[in-house]
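Deliverable D5.2: sample structural annotation.
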Amino acid sequence: MTTIFEALRESHEIQRDLAEKLLQTSGDTAERRELFKQLKNELFAHEAAEDRYFYIPLMMTDSGLNITRHALAEHHEMDEMIEELTATELSNPGWIAIAKKLSEKVHHHLKEEEHGFFQQAGKILGEEQKTALAVQYKNEYQRYKDMKKDMLVQS
């Protein structure tokens, strides 16, 4: 049975990979456009499902509250960077600087989750809850991935 932690890690790997690839692009190219769209969609689907089936259950406990507050604040920062990137011309020399900041924030956030939050959450969530949340998370994540992409983020 997959636990919520394993389910979240799958998307984390995709995010790291897309963020790295995005930084290798230059100018307003089809490749940059496509990778940015994929990363934007991946982050959105992951974040929406993770907030609902990982952070909200943790928020219900005293010990989970601080982790949750911190993580949700970082999600918000990433959302703002994505909005900034969306509003900036892909050919703008400043675009890659913002993308680099986003990539650094993504890497920092995932590392913090995997090396800190997951351990703390592991003590808070029961065994059955860990597998039940994984199923719910995966369904929600897939639902967002399948949605009409452009409706999700203002372009």
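Annotation notes: The mean pLDDT is 94. Residues 125 and 132 are 11 Å apart (CA to CA).
The annotation will be released with the project's public dataset once the embargo ends.
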